[in-house]
Amino acid sequence: MESETIIKIIGAIVGIFGAGKIIYDITTGKKSRLREDYKFAKEFLEDLKNNPDLHPFAVEKGYHAIAGSTIVSSKEIAYILSLKNSGKCLNDYVLSRKYLQTLDTKGDLRLAFSKKYSSAWSRWLRKGIYFFLYIFCACVAIIPIFFPKYLTVLIITTLVFGYWAVIALNSYVRIYRGEQLVKHQQRHTQMILLPNRNT
């Protein structure tokens, strides 16, 4: 095997896993605005604590701003903010919400996988398929690098198979983060509660 081919193979492997790391970082919510997020969260939570008559619309919008998403209810966000490592838990929940459900037990929320994903086997199988698809699509996306005659095809393979590699990795990450959230949900002793009139 020529040294040039070995270098290409090593470069391709590093590229596949490097791209995976970048995609993982993007999907897990690495932000450049951490100071702004901190300032807003601090002000909002202080408002919530000091002003029990805060309008429900303002409360809802505040929780949505903290979550960075409007698809999560303020009740769910309030529960997640009461967990240990609430910032990570909130990012995990926003990512994996479509796989999860909230269970209301004796007036207390609890996160669990929805019926379709409740079996560990079902999740393991899906993660295995997504990981395989990621590796397969990422390899196909860069395979023209090894055949200089076909380098022009690289644009097409990268766009088509690179796209599906990103989708597969994103799906894998979402299930994995949901598992971490459900497994490690532990409550703080001091709860963050919504005003009674707002659900």
Q: Can you characterise this structure?
A:
With 199 residues, this protein is mainly alpha-helical. It folds into two domains: 3-28 and 119-181, no CATH class; 34-113, no CATH class. Helices cover 64% and strands 6% of the residues. It has helices at 3-27, 34-50, 56-67, 74-81, 86-96, 120-142, 153-184, and strands spanning 100-105, 108-113. Strands 1-2 form a two-stranded antiparallel ribbon. A hairpin with a 2-residue loop joins strand 1 and strand 2 (108-113). Helix 1 packs across helix 7 (153-184), helix 2 runs antiparallel to helix 3 and helix 6 packs antiparallel against helix 7 (153-184). The longest helix has 32 residues, at 153-184. The chain is elongated and about 70 Å long. Residues 189-193 have low confidence and may be disordered.
